[in-house]
Amino acid sequence: MPGTIDARLSELGITLPDAPAPAAAYVPYVVSGDLVFVSGQIAMDADGLRTGTVGNGIGVEEAQHSARCCGLALLAQLKNAAGGDLDRVAQVVKLTGFVNAAPGFTEHPQVINGASLLMAEVFGDKGQHARAAVGSSSLPRGVQVEVEGIFRLA
User: Can you give the CATH number for the domain in which 126 is found?
Assistant: First the structure.
């Protein structure tokens, strides 16, 4: 029987992607006590990697979609870490988002809102979190956005 969060995902029309395999020498997540640390998830959707430099041909709205894609990958990893049960998530603690930004671009927080708003949609009050949004001159594989997260399990 699907849980409350699975039902919420269905209601929102969200299908989680398969949890991506690590691209280098790290694990996708680490569980330490009641905390889950999910490694950075890069911007990818059904069409593949979402590459480019935000502020140089890539606008805020497109980059927000990329951040949302990162958030979906975070949820897929988190679901694995929670033994397949997202109802175990007690709190989204913190997200850190990295934006592949052109020099002078300053709207990093608006971009990372794509992931933050997803957490609030899915988890309600439990989705409210601390956050950092950081600009970068490049990201792995040329993606627009990468987001990592810390979550607390019940």
Answer: 3.30.1330.40
Q: Is 138 helix (H, G, I), strand (E, B) or coil?
A: coil
Domain extent, residue 65, equals 56-154
- pTM score of the predicted model: 0.96
The C-alpha angle with vertex 122 and arms to 119 and 124, in degrees rounded to 5, equals: 80
Q: How many domains does the chain have?
A: 1
CA distance 140 to 14: 26
Q: Kindly report, residue by residue over 22-45, the tens digit of the pLDDT.
A: 989 999 999 999 999 999 999 998
Does the residue 3 lie in any domain?
no
The C-alpha atoms of residue 54 and residue 111 are separated, in whole angstroms, by 9
CB 151, CB 92: distance < 8 Å? yes
Residue 138 to residue 56: CA distance in whole angstroms:
13
